[in-house]
Structure formats: C-alpha cells, structure tokens
Amino acid sequence: MGEFDRGVKPGNAYLSDLPRIVDGGIKAPELYDRGRLNKLEDEAEKLRQVIEDKQARKRRGLKEWAKLSRESETASFRAQLADENVRALAGESDGGAAF
Predict the structure, then answer these.
(1) Which candidate, 70, 52, 49, 71, places its Cα nearest to that of 60?
(2) Are the CB atoms for 19 and 30 separated by under 8 Å?
(3) What are phi and psi of 28, to 5 degrees?
(4) Does the model's pTM come out above 0.90?
(5) Distance of alpha carbon 85 from its chain centroid, rounded?
(6) DSSP string, the chain
(7) Top-confidence residue, 89 or 43
(8) What's the sign of the alpha-carbon dihedral 71, 76, 81, 86?
(9) pLDDT single digits (tens) 6-63
C-alpha cells in the first residue's frame, strides 16, 4: 500500500480528463460547439448529394455510350452486308465457280 499512499492515485489520472460535475443539477455546458457540428453535417449532406448527382449523370452517359456503340456496330454490319450484296449482284464475288 505504500506506493498508493504517496503521489497521484492511478484512478485520478483517468478522471482528470472528464468534465467536472456541476452541483445542483444544472446542465453542464456542451463540450463541442453544436452550431459548428450542424454546419459540418449540412455541408457533408450537400457533398453527398453532389456526388450522387455526378454518379447519376455518369451512369446516364455510360448508358448512352453503350447504346450508341451498339447502334454503330449494327450500322457497320449492315453496311458490310450491303457492300457484299452489291458485289454479288455485280458479279465481283470472290467465291465464284472456278473452271
């Protein structure tokens, strides 16, 4: 017990960081400025909304890009088939009968 008789007790070191007890049941002042926290929460919500809007715009753009890519590929195939049909009608076919 000699070690705890002198100096600061170990429990008191942990209790010193806690807010003081207010006598008479009076509400203790807040440790943090609530107005600033509310402002930061509002700003965080606005940033989340901006991110959500950007992602929605990006999804729409990617969807449009995929659609146009498919249409371009379809048009390319149609042009290729039309070109082959024109050559076949003109007698320029590569697969003609050999003697």
Answers:
(1) 52
(2) no
(3) -75, 150
(4) no
(5) 50
(6) -HHHHSS--HHHHHHTTSPPPPGGGPPPPPSS-HHHHHHHHHHHHHHHHHHHHHHHHHHHHHHHHHHHHHHHHHHHHHHHHHHHHHHHHHT--TTPPP-
(7) 43
(8) positive
(9) 666 666 777 777 777 767 777 777 777 889 999 999 999 999 999 999 999 999 999 9
